[in-house]
Automatic annotation (TrEMBL):
HAMAP family: Ribosomal_bS6. This is Small ribosomal subunit protein bS6. SUPFAM superfamilies: Ribosomal protein S6. It holds the Pfam family Ribosomal_S6. Belongs to the bacterial ribosomal protein bS6 family. Keywords: Ribonucleoprotein, Ribosomal protein, RNA-binding, rRNA-binding. One of its GO terms (molecular function) is small ribosomal subunit rRNA binding. The gene is rpsF. InterPro entries: Ribosomal_bS6, Ribosomal_bS6_CS, Ribosomal_bS6_sf, Ribosomal_S6_plastid/chlpt, Transl_elong_EF1B/ribsomal_bS6. Binds together with bS18 to 16S ribosomal RNA. Coiled coil: none annotated. One of its GO terms (biological process) is translation. GO terms for cellular component: cytoplasm; ribonucleoprotein complex; ribosome.
Length: 109
């Protein structure tokens, strides 16, 4: 069974446009190799950080939403942990919204 995940990661700000695109493609390919589906990538651009990370005050934010089995998240996180270009990452499991059934309404005649 596949779960929905949302991952946000921050790349070093000193990377050029081409290395950023290569990094995004690399992590997307890792997900595809692991069998992820419905991959949506949003390049959020360069933003100022709330606090310094690895002596950097800015970072390039990228958000990925995807659907994959839980065991397939670990290889992606391992690749990011070992990478020099990724400063931080966070993966969240997105819970499916609960569908509420409307209560029956009594109609007086």
């Amino acid at each position: 069974m596949s779960d929905h995940y949302e991952m946000m990661y921050i790349l070093r700000p000193d990377l050029g446009e081409e290395p950023v695109d290569q990094a995004i493609a690399k992590y997307e390919n890792i997900l595809r190799e692991q069998g992820a589906e419905d991959i949506e990538i949003q390049h959020r651009g360069r933003r100022r950080l709330a606090y310094e990370i690895k002596r950097q005050r800015e970072g390039i934010y990228v958000q990925m939403n995807y659907k994959a089995p839980g065991a397939h998240v670990a290889p992606l996180e391992r690749a990011m942990r070992l990478s020099e270009e990724v400063m931080r990452y966070l993966t969240l499991k997105v819970e499916a919204p609960a569908v509420e059934t409307p209560e029956p309404v009594e109609v007086e005649a």
